[in-house]
Structures are given as structure tokens and as C-alpha cells.
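Team,

Forwarding the record for the chain on the shared tracking sheet. I've put the sequence and predicted structure together so nobody has to dig through attachments.
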Amino acid sequence: MISDRVLQVEVSRGVATLTLDSPANRNALSRAMRSQLGTALTEALADDAVRVIVLDHTGRVFCSGMDLSEAAGGGEQDQGVREFPALLEAIWSSPKPVIAVVRGPARAGGVGLLAACDVVVAGTSATFAFAEVRLGIVPAVISAVVVPRMVPHVAHRLLLTGQVFDAEIAANGGLVDLVVPDADVDGEVRAQLVHLTAGAPAALAETKRLLRARTPSQDFDSLLELSARYFASEEGQEGIAAFREKRPARWVPTTD
């Protein structure tokens, strides 16, 4: 038993299920999570027996985004963003369909993770937020997968406000594909797996390549540089500190 295991991997009947399993930190994208998820994706993509990949989670939260306890201090290597573009690219360009299963809150980088997937199934209690601007940072890297997916004016408002929104708004805005009652999530995922595994593997891969080719190319290097710069900035470090200390950041207007 590996004590620092934060990801469960199960392969059965052509489906690789990768389950984020770090509920103590709300399935944050810690170094361990990024490393284990990257390895699991690589192995699933290389396994000819795997037809579909499912990204699921334990606990109440799908993914809270980057682990801000690792991002504090301003050191570029500690900001939790260096490996993230590779994860998004692996999911986005995967020749095998990827389903995200969202049973609870998704925030910031966690929203980017699901946005890179082909099909997103969410329970009605799921909520979402692009919280970056409220922390003094920029949703640069995730914009590469979020912007092509969403209705432009909806993405514009939600990325700028950082407000929490529900599954219905997420679906109307293009972020989520299917919203079902919480009790029906597993059944809907099974139904989608039946549909996806009915397609021929090579045909699915080529169809996905065609679909992705219609989106603008993304420069992850420049987006990563922008993200890292704001994580290390005075505003970014103040926002992260305010979040950890559960207080308003200095730029939030005070009420008289």
C-alpha cells in the first residue's frame, strides 16, 4: 500500500476509471495528484484494451484546483502549475474519449480539468467557479480548454466575476454536457459508456482529431508563463494568503 496514493485506477471491460482520491484537501491538484494523474493517463492511453477513460472522484468535491498550500511563497517551482498544461493536453488530445463525472464542487483548475474532457456528466448539486481573479491570479492555462468549450459571453462573465454557478448555468454555458439528479449520475455515466464503446476505436480517434482541429491552437508556453507570473506576483501571494487565512484580500472594498 502506497501511503501517498491520491489516485485510484481501475481498468475493467475497456474502461479505465481514474478516481481523484484526496478528500482531505478537496482533491486539490497537489504535486502527488498531478504526478499520479499524469502517469495514469499515459498508461491508459498506451493500453490497447482501454476504450474510454473516466475521470471520477471520491468525497464531496470534484477538484478544488491547485493546492494553494504548495503555491504559497512565490517560488516558481512551487506554484503548482508547471505540469498542469501537460495534463490538460493529454486529456484534450486523447484519441480515446474521456468522461468527467462531477458530483460536487469544481473550482479553478478543477474546472479546467473537466473542460478538457469530451463528455461532462454532473449531478444537480454540483457547483463551479473560476476563482482565480479573486485570488489575484489569472485563469491563463485553463483558458486553453475552457474558452473553446463555452458560450463566449457566458465564459466572459463567469471568468471575470469568479462567482459560483450551478450545474444548470454550466450546462447552458457549454461547460457541462449532461445534468442529472445526483442519484442518477452513475446510471448516466454507464449509458454514455455504452454509446462511446459502440464506436470503432480508430474512427473515434479520427473523429476526435477532426473536432479538436476546429479549435484555435493554444500556446501553452505563453499561458503558463502568464499564470506563473501572477502566482508569484504581490497580488497573487496576497490572494493566496487571504484564502488560507479566511479573510478578505486587501483589494476587496470594505463596507462602512
